[in-house]
Amino acid sequence: MALLRQQVLRLNCLLLLLLVVCCTPPEDPIKCSNGNSNCTITNSYGAFPDRSVCRAGAASYPATEEELISIVANATRNGLKMKATTRFSHSIPKLVCPGGREDGLLISTKNLSRVLNIDTGAMTMTVESGVTLRDLISEAAKAKLALPYAPYWWGLTIGGMLGTGAHGSTLWGKGSSVHDYVTGLTIVSPGRAVDGFVKVRRLKEGDEELNAAKVSLGVLGVISQVTFKLEPLFKRSITYLMKNDSDLRDEVVSFGRKHEFADIIWYPSQQKAVYRVDDRVSSNTSGDGIYDFIPFRPTSSLTLAIIRTTEDSQELFDDANGKCTSAKLVTTTLSTGAYGLTNNGVIFKGYPVIGYQNRLQASGTCLDSIEDAKITACAWDHRIKGEFFHQTTFSVALSSVKSFIQDIQQLVKLEPKALCGVELYNGILMRYVTSSNAYLGKQEDAVDFDITYYRSKDPLAPRLYEDILEEIEQLAVVKYGALPHWGKNRNIAFEGALNKYKNGKKFLKLKKIYDPLGLFSSEWTDQVLGLKGGLTIVKEGCALEGLCRCEEDAHCAPSKGYFCRPGKLFKDARVCTGLNSSKH
Questions:
Q1: In sequence order, what E strands does 359-427 have?
Q2: Bond preceding residue 352 cis, omega within 30 of 0
Q3: For residue 354, what are the β-bridge partners?
Q4: What total of structural domains would you count in the chain?
């Protein structure tokens, strides 16, 4: 009876999620105690992978390119470490930390938010780097233009997307990465004294340096302006089709080639896959659909607290059955609600949903606002008791993806309930990506796997099926040589990452030219780029947070029954296995 009440409560919470229509805007990730001095910065989730606090001596908010140039010049003259930061700070790794010293400078692009030019004849659009994806999509549509591929969450800025290689999903055309539609870019970097301590480079298509600057991890300087090549505004037709996942490994490649905007949501423990059949249609096709993805809508803060409390309880009591039941409620609710699609902006009448690109390609209405997080918020807003999670995201080459999927399915056969916790966060999102000429872009056509799962507020607390999630992570990055998403992941996913990029050394050479004193570098970025010791942080319980790959039991949680052992399938993996737990 208690379990039934718990599941009814969760279902009621999910139904509330569908009804709430307003929320609190995310707070500025920069907080200063004395005007714009003595500052700290975090991300929108409230914690970096190692839970450290990033400090800086000051923060600045340039509103024009001229102000940005002056700020960089002055900081260079004074030898200050610098980092560009974004309005919402959605990256998980420590890309925004200005280094170990506390006198560094945070340069926010929050006020660099203007659309500078739209050339309808050339189908180009020039914007400042703090413009959000939402505004880019909206302003382009007013001119009957569209960015063909983009992330699904519109609370990202142009500079943030370029810095981390953000993408949508396609194997068609130039590919799904936002940076592959950049035809021009202005970047402000440190300069020599003779140059006034600042260097402004205006790169254009054909310049080899553009291939480094358009995915830069923020280590080359601050992006000021970006020009995109757009397309005429078009319509799409979307149908979600749920199937058994028995033939997923055989279907995954061909499905991506058949449908321009294809993606797949995979529920491995339920042995189901949801195929997004998504293609362009003629602009005179009837339909005015809207995509307002349910998990990106504003949600009652009370609802979020109840859901989190339920999941905390399931973790505490090793309640795998409870997680699996909850996961089925989540997936059923999302499927019934067509994942947030409506045929006319109000109700869902049935598939296909047809509408203009700007109304279907991305969403994020939880950014719309009232000023009280105690009422509603984005689900992950760290000011409330809501979601707190890890994200493991990587790209597996098309040539290897069948074997990788098969390995995950084998693990699920060994532990059928192991990935119910992932399904609580809408399963594994599989998006298609293509090779890019960006030095730190995708190296070949691949499938990007986005896996979100529970993270405890206690860094020394193991998760349900800790070992299975760690084994999947190591299968991807070690066995299959997967590329990490630069804006997501735990530390261990980045170990040796630069060696996987054929132009990695070219990027490092250009980095020395753009920033010879390393003022835009930090200990974290130097480690990621292989310029300093590895990212591994060895200490008690380090494997639980992905700060290390366990080598001894102390790296797990032996006092709680979790010990360092080889993987169940991939014997080269070293994972934290619960030997005294009811779930094994």
A1: 376-377, 389-397
A2: yes
A3: 237
A4: 2
Cβ atoms of 422 and 452 within 8 Å: the answer is: yes
Q: How far apart are CA 27 and CA 30, in angstroms?
A: 8
Cβ within 8 Å of residue 123, ≥6 positions away: 145, 229, 230, 231, 232
Question: Does residue 173 fall inside a structural domain?
Answer: no
pLDDT interval class at 12 (50, 70, 90)? very low
Q: Which residues contact 240 (CB under 8 A, 6 or more apart)?
A: 274, 275, 276, 277, 335, 338, 339, 341, 351
Q: 432 near 170, Cβ under 8 Å?
A: yes
Structure tokens at 418: 């192991």
Residue whose pair of structure tokens reads 């619960």 in the numeric block: 578
Which residue type, as a one-letter code, is found at position 93?
P
Closest CA to 573 of 428, 453, 490, 476: 476
Q: Which amino acid, residue 125?
A: M
Structural domain includes residue 544: no
465-479: pLDDT as tens digits: 999 999 999 999 999
What's the Cα-to-Cα distance from 356 to each of 142, 145, 175, 232, 291, rounded to whole Å? 12, 11, 20, 11, 10
Alpha-carbon distance 520 to 252, whole Å?
A: 40
Length of the chain: 584
Q: What is the DSSP letter of 463?
A: P
In this prediction, residue 342 has a pLDDT band, given cuts at 50, 70 and 90, of: very high
Q: Is the pLDDT of residue 429 over 70?
A: yes
Judge if pTM exceeds 0.90: yes
Q: What angle do CA 429, 395, 427 make, to 5 degrees?
A: 15
CATH number, position 426: 3.30.70.2520
Tokens representing residue 4 in the block: 């039934």
The domain in which residue 375 lies consists of: 235-351+370-494
Kindly state the average pLDDT of the residues 517-533.
93
Q: Alpha-carbon distance 164 to 179, whole Å?
A: 10
pLDDT at position 375, please? 85
Give the pLDDT mean for 414-423: 98
Which residue's structure tokens are 């970097």? 189
| pLDDT level of residue 368 (50, 70, 90 thresholds) | confident
